[in-house]
Write a structure and sequence with these properties.
By secondary structure, the protein is mostly helical. It has a single domain, classed as MFS general substrate transporter like domains (Growth Hormone, Chain: A, Up-down Bundle), CATH 1.20.1250. The chain contains nine helices and no strands. The longest helix is centred in the middle third of the chain and has 33 residues. The chain is globular. Keywords: Membrane, Transmembrane, Transmembrane helix. GO terms for molecular function: monocarboxylic acid transmembrane transporter activity.
């Protein structure tokens, strides 16, 4: 009898949590994280191969990937300064997602000459890494804004699940688009960039309400 009551209590708790999180705002945020994870998986997994396809050496491809990771860390640190300036986290999240997508699309820019191609790809990858780090640093804050306080643990779990689903789907999808794109990465990166930009733009009706976001941030502080 005790086990039955425990199972009923657990089922009731899960139902209450899911019901509280079943809002259109949180659903859009969930989709946004899936799209962003989808795009980021394509960039991080295939950027060395894409660099070599552009005529760069393996060593140059390694440098580009290292620069991307370094700028990712810088972006997270930069977000601390943005927080101290009391910037709107919702707007920062939207802009970082959108700018990340633009940077992915710009990776397709092809300049004549190996040195020019390396410089162009290094700049776009560095910029993407910077915005990527800022986006990741704001995920927890935006999650707390869009979900009820008693169910934050569940909300964080669902948010990470969304990013994981997108990441898992990213690599196989990239391989498919690579094959239909004539064994080239241009189509793949345009799709990844479009998905990443969409991850930010679909949240415009959700967290671009400056007063609402500011009020919630003040309450949490």
């Amino acid at each position: 009898m005790k086990d039955i009551n425990q199972k009923q209590t657990l089922a009731t708790t899960i139902k209450e949590q899911l019901t509280a999180l079943c809002s259109w705002r949180f659903f859009l945020f969930w989709v946004s994280n899936s799209l962003f994870g989808f795009g980021s998986a394509i960039v991080f997994v295939f950027i060395p191969d894409y660099a070599e396809q552009k005529g760069l050496s393996f060593q140059q491809a390694v440098y580009i990937l290292s620069t991307l990771g370094l700028c990712n860390a810088i972006g997270r640190l930069l977000n601390i300064l943005l927080s101290l300036c009391r910037c709107n986290h919702g707007n920062i999240y939207i802009m970082s997602c959108t700018l990340s997508g633009i940077c992915i699309c710009l990776m397709n820019v092809d300049l004549s000459g190996s040195s020019n191609s390396f410089l162009a790809l290094a700049i776009t990858c560095s910029s993407y890494g910077l915005f990527y780090g800022i986006q990741l640093a704001n995920v927890a804050t935006v999650t707390s804004i869009l979900s009820p306080q008693p169910f934050l643990n569940t909300a964080f779990g669902l948010t990470n699940l969304a990013a994981g689903v997108g990441t898992i789907c990213g690599s196989p999808a990239a391989a498919f688009f690579f094959s239909i794109g004539g064994d080239r990465f241009e189509l793949t990166y345009y799709i990844a960039g479009g998905a990443t930009m969409l991850a930010g733009l679909i949240l415009l009706p959700t967290i671009c309400l400056k007063t609402q976001v500011s009020q919630v941030c003040d309450e949490t502080e």
